[in-house]
Specification:
The complex is a heterodimer of chains A (about 110) and B (about 120). By secondary structure, chain A is mostly beta strands. Chain A is built from no helices and 11 strands. In chain A, the strands form 2 sheets. In chain A, strands 2, 4, 5, 9, 10 and 11 form a 6-stranded mixed β-sheet that branches. A 5-stranded antiparallel β-sheet of chain A has the order 1-3-8-7-6, with no helix packed on it. Chain B is about 0% helix and about 45% strand. In chain B, a hairpin with a 5-residue loop joins strand 4 and strand 5. With about 120 residues, chain B is mainly β. Classes of the chains: A mainly beta (about 110), B mainly beta (about 120). Chains A and B meet through strand 4, strand 5, strand 9 and strand 10 of A and strand 4, strand 5, strand 8 and strand 9 of B.
Chain lengths: ~110, ~120
C-alpha cells in the first residue's frame, strides 16, 4: 500500500528564517511526486511535480528536491504570505495510476 | 471557466437526508476526480472519470455514495442517507489526461464543498 508521511505536522518560522519540510514515501513504482499548497477554506494549489531521484524544481522562495525515499520542500527567507498547509502526494505506476495518495500536510506559519 | 468550480461552497444537512455536490471541471480536461478531506486526515480518493470510460469507483466508502458525469463535463457526487461521519470537505479535481500514455498530469483542484451533517 502506498504511504506518504509528512513532517513536521506544524512549523512556526520567523520571517526570513529558512527551513525544510519533509515528505517520506513508499510507493510501487513512482510516477510522480507532487507538492501542493493549501490555504484555509480553499482547494490545494499545484506547486511542483518531480519525477526522478536527483530532480529539483524552484519557484520563488520554494525549492523541491527528490530522492528515492523522500522529498524536501526548502523554503528560503520565508514571508508571512508563505503561511499555508503544504501537501505532498505520490502517483504510482500501473493500476490506479491516476490516483494521488496524499500525506496529511505540514502547516507552516511565518511570523512577521 | 478559468478553474475548477464547485457548488455549493457549504452545505449543512440533517442526518438521513440526501445531498448532491456539483463539480464543473476546467474546460477541455477529460479526467475528473473526487476526493474527501476529513479533519486531520489527508485527502482520500473517491472516484475517477476519464472521458467516456467507465468510472473507477474503488474509493467510494459505501454504497450510499455515487457519482455521475454528464456529457464528459459536469459531475455530481450524491450521498444518500447522510451520516455524521460523512462530514468533510469534498474536493473535485481535473486534469488534461488520465492514465493513458505518458500521464504525468497535474490535477487542478476546485475550492471544495464543506459538508456538515448534524
Amino acid at each position: 500500500e502506498d504511504q506518504v508521511t509528512q513532517s513536521p505536522e506544524a512549523l512556526r518560522l520567523q520571517e526570513g528564517e529558512s527551513s525544510s519540510l519533509n515528505c517520506s514515501y513508499t510507493v510501487s513504482g513512482l510516477r510522480g511526486l507532487f507538492w501542493y499548497r493549501q490555504d484555509p477554506g480553499k482547494g490545494p494549489e499545484f506547486l511542483f511535480t518531480l519525477y526522478s531521484a536527483g530532480e529539483e524544481k524552484e519557484k520563488e522562495r520554494l525549492k523541491a528536491t527528490l530522492t528515492k525515499k523522500e522529498s524536501f520542500l526548502h523554503i528560503t527567507a520565508p514571508k508571512p504570505e508563505d503561511s499555508a498547509t503544504y501537501l505532498c502526494a505520490v502517483r504510482r505506476s500501473g493500476a490506479g495510476s491516476y490516483q494521488l495518495t496524499f500525506g496529511k500536510g505540514t502547516k507552516l506559519s511565518v511570523i512577521p | 471557466g478559468a478553474g475548477v468550480s464547485q457548488s455549493p461552497s457549504n452545505k449543512v444537512t440533517e442526518k438521513g437526508k440526501d445531498v448532491e455536490l456539483r463539480c464543473d471541471p476546467i474546460s477541455g480536461h477529460t479526467a475528473l476526480y473526487w476526493y474527501r478531506q476529513s479533519l486531520g486526515q489527508g485527502l482520500e480518493f473517491l472516484i475517477y472519470f476519464q472521458g467516456n470510460s467507465a468510472p473507477d469507483k474503488s474509493g467510494l466508502p459505501s454504497d450510499r455514495f455515487s457519482a455521475e458525469r454528464t456529457g464528459g463535463s459536469v459531475s455530481t457526487l450524491t450521498i444518500q442517507r447522510t451520516q455524521q461521519e460523512d462530514s468533510a470537505v469534498y474536493l473535485c479535481a481535473s486534469s488534461s489526461r488520465g492514465s493513458g500514455g505518458p500521464s504525468y498530469n497535474e490535477q487542478f483542484f476546485g475550492p471544495g464543498t464543506r459538508l456538515t451533517v448534524l
